[in-house]
Amino acid sequence: MKAFRGRPSIFQEDCIAERRAELDIQGVSLQFGGVQALSDIHLSVHTGELFAVIGPNGAGKTSLLNCITGFYRPQAGKIFFNGTDITTLPPHELVRVGIGRTFQNIELFPGMTVISNLFLARHTHCTYGLGPACFFLPSVRKEEIRHRRILEEIIDFLEIQSLRNKTVGSLPYGMMKRVELGRALALEPALLVLDEPFAGMNLEEKEDMVRFLLELNRSWRQTMVLVEHDMSIVMSIAKRIAVLNFGEKLTEGNPQEIVDHPEVIKAYLGDDETTT
After folding, report:
1. Each residue's pLDDT tens digit, 64-93
2. Based on the number of CB atoms within 10 Å of its own CB, is 36 exposed (0-12), middle (13-18) or buried (19 or more)?
């Protein structure tokens, strides 16, 4: 990764100390009609962790992320973030308490430029109103300079300097994924939730994304919850892993414990008796 021109301000030590991210999921269950998407899920994620959730298709991984980020409201159980019950909070309120996310299907504005997409994420940090903005008062100019500085740091970090004025819809898929990560970082989240950030990428794009996530986690202690199908990536970067299957938690542990667990092997490979 390219060297930084000094530490990005959003990742300075005092900011890192403030980004406490203790997530506690207690007995969460979710139903869609007669389909049990999640059943009595218990999980905890601690500050500075890179925590992965894996499982076969239909295991309930994205449903769990949607409960954490307020897109779904579970019928049972509680979700706590830094000791506060966030179970019923809508997505925009969860952004304010420090939870940002990326999506399995890219949710950018394709007709807008990269820098404009990133700027949209700063709205939650704007303190001025319509009147001062219309007259572009000194206080507004000062705040806009800070927003711009943070975005420039993110652009440098993600190595997308040459793309800042390009429309998102004209970019390769892997670059769109990178821009979406940048927009999530522009929220300055304490907890970053990533739904299949490597999906649709080629090998080189995946290697770049791995570098970015490891740098965020190791150097800046960014707490992350990651859902991903590429097991080679998950096993190489995650500290702890939880395995879901048919909406239930099979187990959790470090990568080696997960690889060796018989129930995990069965979920992914099937019963030996039924395999031909």
Report:
1. 999 999 999 999 999 999 999 999 999 999
2. middle
For 194-262, the three-class secondary structure string (H helix, E strand, C coil) is EECCCCCCCHHHHHHHHHHHHHHHHHHCCEEEEECCCHHHHHHHCCEEEEEECCEEEEEECHHHHHHCH
Evaluate whether 81 touches 22 at the Cβ level (below 8 Å): yes
Strands 35-45 and 191-195: unpaired
Q: Which two tokens stand for residue 63?
A: 């449903």
CA distance 217 to 48: 7
Q: Are 178 and 162 in contact (CB under 8 A)?
A: no
Of 64, 80, 106, 76, the residue nearest 22 (C-alpha): 80
Calculated CA dihedral for residues 88, 90, 92, 94, nearest 10 degrees: 30
pLDDT tens-place string over residues 170-218: 999 999 999 999 999 999 999 999 999 999 999 999 999 999 999 999 9
pTM of this structure: 0.88
User: What is the H or E stretch that residue 146 is in?
Assistant: helix 138-157
